[in-house]
Amino acid sequence: MCGIVGVVSNAPVNQLIYDSLLLLQHRGQDAAGIVTQQERKFFMHKAKGMVKDVFRTRNMRALPGNCGLGQVRYPTAGNAFSEEEAQPFYVNAPFGLVLVHNGNLTNAQALKSELFITDHRHINTESDSEVLLNVLAHELDRVSRGGKLKVEQVFEAVRQVHQRVRGSYAVIALIAGHGVLAFRDPYGIRPLCIGRGADGTLMLASESVALEGTGHVFERDVQPGEAVFIDLQGQMSSLQCAKKPSLHPCIFEFVYLARPDSVMDGISVYQARLNLGETLAHRVAATVPLQDIDVVIPIPESSRPSAMQLAQILELPYREGFVKNRYVGRTFIMPGQSVRKKSVRQKLNVIGTEFKGRNVLLVDDSIVRGTTSREIVQMAREAGANKVYMASAAPPVRYPNVYGIDMPTSNELVAHGRTLEQVRALIGADALIYQEVDGMKQAISKLRPDLNGFDASCFDGVYVTGDIQAVDIERMNASRVQGDEDDADTSRLALPNHQEE
Q: CATH number for the 3-246 domain, one of 3.60.20.10, 3.40.50.2000, 3.90.550.10, 3.30.450.20?
């Protein structure tokens, strides 16, 4: 999961891209990068860390130009601690090309060999985004044949990328002297949308909140398989470049990843979470006697809409029992189990009066590794709770994710290979209530009845791209985020995070 943005304007874009990345900071806190273009020259700055720490005044002054790209990175493959793997990525031929990518390629290793043996291109990092950049560069070079690049040739190159690449990818690329290209994988797994400013500025971003928060009006989502090209004069062209596009957005975006004030593929994230709370309420009522629940308490931040809706439907008191330290990053994103465990109590503190002598129902958006849940249940008990019930707005996460979420190994998933009772005992709750898979899908899909479906692979084990076998998962596990949990990694816990989750 990463956050990406691209802008074409008639005014300098460095500050606009910076502001957009702040609004997308929840999508990645490991590294940030911006590239701009003035005339035919690229200007780039990228580094590890949060947006506000990566970009100082001197860096911003060194990013001139009226078009550019930006990315906040959350690594799922390669090395989490490598400066070289921060995006954007750059190649000088053809034309000069820079790219930002949100997603994860499932055939990156095969493509890397193909690029070296057949296309004679060199890959210098372990990042699948660099692989994707070189595939695009090769196809652009092939279709342009050394001549002037035409829009229809750009779309033909994207068509060939779709033929070669597998997995999830929302991409924004800047072609020197020509314009900005954006495209989305044929299943639309990772999000991408378009907005326009009053001055004619065109912006592409992972979430609508980045558009609206910078004064742009949301126009539409980029469709699965579609390519959009914006020239340097702000003229936009688009074409469907996939043979059989089918919209299957990642359902975990609605459960947890996206900001609640975003609208993705026509679905309000906030309303989706309210609907999840409604269906979860029925599960709770069928599992725990309601007279045994004194109060409903959300685990901040993503679960609040679901918890509020659940409490309202069950006519139970809703209270805030945890205070979040906003200067600690999202624990789910932190590479390394010991770092993740250490940060839980730094991140949350209890309001003791809401727990003492009560039977509490804690509501979380999802339970992935179980580390956070176990710590939070213990915190509730230490605050004096009589009983602690745990409800998850999402079903059990039982399967690896291969499309850009950092939970690829089965042994990291608390629900994998365990019964409900075993998971309950492991996290220490008096009762554990999960959402049902079908209930989750129905709750969200009724907000857009024409939806083809979802990628819900981490819940149901169905991989929409149809190319994932056990051996593929093992191979991708070997290339996932690497690095030692040294002082440099741990220090990231002190980095500020002002963004709502």
A: 3.60.20.10
